[in-house]
Write a structure and sequence with these properties.
This protein has about 280 residues and is mainly alpha-helical. It is about 80% helix and about 0% strand.
């Protein structure tokens, strides 16, 4: 009797394994057909095949990414048509599902998929949703500098400069040996000074100091950082504006200080040009 039960158990296991094997094979066939449809730009047909593959084998995680990409291809950026809103929502959801499942040992795939997410959030004008998503991600991954960079970018896109600067500074604190982390602070502080007329003299002074301190650190880490020298030049010119916005109307008692800032600006500009020539640039 025990032998009969053992034989029956063995048969059941073999049948189950065969069913699993058949299911996996059928799932891969569907996934392959989905890839063919995707290459032919038949995105709706591709989505159907990828979803069919996932029903048969949920472990084919590449299908989540491929479905997201298919919805992304169907979506018309900026459109508020209900169908496009749905495409955008589905693309975002499937990218998130893929990120939940992709192995941590595959940072390139994660980074690329995060880029897709940012693109979809921006194109669908869902910046606040994107900010919330990446802030939640950072609660679990507090040292993820790539996500800090994305958050800073998203805040800048949303017109929230102070928040953008805060995240760029946090990135620099975590990535303290990376000159680019400091360089970008110099860039955005200059842009705020130069491009926005509503900057008060007090704000300009704070921004110039913040940018110069950051660029100085970038140059210490990389003495051949031509672009850092270039932006230091630009910030010295902004510093000169603190004395006078009109170069033809500088107070007499400030002329030497004003000219001194412009001279320092030229020094940094000349150094940037020299480095670019050495590096084969323009």
């Amino acid at each position: 009797m025990n032998r009969v039960r053992l034989i029956l158990s063995f048969v059941i296991v073999v049948v189950a394994l065969n069913l699993i094997s058949c299911g996996n094979f059928a799932a891969r066939i569907d996934a392959k057909k989905g890839n063919e449809f995707y290459k032919e730009r038949k995105y709706e047909e591709a989505i159907d095949k990828y979803k069919s593959a996932l029903k048969k084998n949920p472990d084919l995680i590449q299908c989540y990414l491929n479905i997201g990409l298919s919805y992304m291809a169907l979506y018309v950026p900026g459109s508020t048509h209900p169908k496009d809103v749905e495409y955008a929502s589905q693309a975002i959801n499937y990218f998130k599902e893929y990120l939940k499942r992709v192995d941590d040992t595959n940072p390139t795939a994660k980074q690329q998929t995060n880029e897709y997410l940012v693109t979809m959030y921006l194109n669908a004008d869902r910046k606040d949703d994107a900010i919330g998503y990446f802030e939640n991600h950072l609660k679990e991954n507090p040292n993820d500098t790539a996500t800090m960079q994305k958050l800073a970018f998203l805040y800048a896109q949303a017109g929230k400069f102070d928040e953008a600067l805060r995240w760029y500074k946090m990135r620099a604190q975590v990535d303290a040996k990376n000159p680019e982390a400091y360089y970008i602070i110099g860039v955005i502080t200059w842009e705020k000074c130069y491009k926005f007329a509503d900057v008060t003299p007090e704000q300009r002074a704070d921004l110039v100091k913040t940018g110069m301190d950051a660029l100085d650190q970038a140059i210490k880490l990389n003495p051949n950082y031509a672009d850092a020298f270039l932006y230091m030049n630009l910030l010295y010119r902004e510093k000169a504006k603190l004395i006078s916005l009109d170069p033809n109307n500088v107070p007499e008692d400030k002329i030497d200080e004003y000219n001194g800032y412009l001279a320092k600006a030229k020094e940094y500009m000349d150094k940037a040009i020299e480095l670019r020539k050495k590096q084969g640039g323009a």
